[in-house]
Amino acid sequence: MLPFFHEFPIVSWQLTKQITTFWCTSNEKIRVLSVVALFRLITVFKEEQREKVLKLLYVSYVKNCKFTSPSAWPMIDFMRMSLVELYNMDQALAYRHGFIYIRQLASHLRNAMLIQKKERLQLVYNWQFVHCLHFWSELLWKTHPNPILSPLTYPLVQICHGTLNLMKSPAYYPFTFHIVNILSEISEKTGIFIPVLPYLIEILSSKKLLSKPKKSSMKPFQWHCIIKVSKSQLLESALCDGLIEQFFNSSLNYLNSQCHTIGFPELAFPFVLQLKSFLKKCKVAVYSKKVKQLLDKINENSQFISDRRKDVTFKLTDSEAIKNWEIAVGQVPPPLRSFCKQWNEMASKLRRNEEMFSEEKRDEFSISSLRKRQRDGEEDLEEDDILKPLPKKTKKNTEESKEEENTGKEVKKGKIKTKFDEGDEESFNYINNKDLNEIKESSVKPKITYFNSDDEFEGEEDIVRNINNLGPTLKVKVEGKGKKKHDEDEPRFNLDSPGIECETPNVIKL
């Protein structure tokens, strides 16, 4: 059917928009089928149509990245990887789009640096900015070396550096780790040296990690799903625990990309000094143990490279010989690379467990909501209605329920209005002197409030319930036309009678 749709541009564009909608859904099978259809469409489309389709896909990717959660990560990863493959089909078009959208990211960063207002900073510190950097970095290192797309690597790396230097606040440490990981990935896949360790040293030098946190917390942070922490979270122990964990992961991944290079001991030397300084100042044993483990692995790898360099006969100016030597060392592999591989496997398992747990929790919520609503009498429910809020229940009075049983019709509850005589200057005629003396002697003094004739009451049961729940009482008598005293069998309040005699609490509402 694709050749048929290809002959009708309007119909083919409508088909592409519909497939793009399926591509953004959470159903995995539908997403896979939509990607296959998009591949076939792009191969038969002309250059103008192809550019229009890829632009639509990129905009859809950015829109769906606005909110990130553990359950949304698989969908975002799939969209990013499939979009990278689609752009790789036309690298000239990918360069034009990359130049435009990377320049747009640079424009947002420049505006935030010139005028550091909340609105400008929010254009940088958001999930869409992070995922855009992640997408273009993955496209560049997957196509490396490429004479067409390689020129975009330098401006993208400069944007990442400018973003890291924009605002160095502890609240944005999660955002810093996201950008550092992007730079580490570019450095590892392309072989380009990118300085990242200074940003990690700044985090390690934070005073929060040198002493025990003031506030304990039971729930850990999901660091791959946050870019900012609140002021209250800055005081929690989970933040410090997560900072050490993320510092360990980011440092390990970056050093893993450089562990086979001939200059690794010199690269790691300033970092080792900072780690030793931290161990001397830190008073938390758990943090010191984690940093000590990283320090031991770095020293082990430095010793490994130093032993290998003893047999070197070529000069430092011979770049080709150095490259061959590093390739040979990388195949051994170095101790740090073996340790990093094991650590990443364990971390990926933990992350998959978190995603599965979040999906199970969401499913349990849906099932429990469905069962609860079925028990309440709402049997025929659709899947879209499961996550909707439950309707508020209303309690019916006993008199209404009896009348409803007798007549078979639903009785609507209305508001009951009570009016005092227009000639009365006050609602209360007298208060017994004996009761007043008792109130004066007590520690709690009642407060009497008056209501006008326009006041409305919700119902008899609400008045009785409010009165019975309150404190010291005094007797109030309201006189009007036709006084009437109630028998014991009658309700305590009869709003139809003009005369009421009852016990009321310290706040009297009539």
Task: Describe the 3D structure.
The chain is mainly α and about 500 residues long. Among the domains are: about 1-260; about 415-510, no CATH class. The protein contains 19 helices and 6 strands. The protein has helices at about 1-5, 10-25, 30-45, 45-65, 75-90, 90-115, 120, 125-140, 155-165, 175-190, 195-205, 235-260, 265-280, 285-310, 320-330, 335-375, 400-405, 435-440, 460-470; strands at about 415, 445-450, 455, 475-480, 500-505, 505-510. The chain has a two-stranded antiparallel sheet with strand order 1-3. A two-stranded parallel sheet has the order 2-6. The longest helix has about 40 residues, at about 335-375. The relative contact order is 0.05. Mean pLDDT is about 75; it is low at about 380-435 and about 440-510.
List the main descriptive attributes of the protein structure presented here.
510 residues; two-stranded parallel ribbon; mainly alpha; disordered C terminus; globular; 6 strands; two-stranded antiparallel sheet; 19 helices
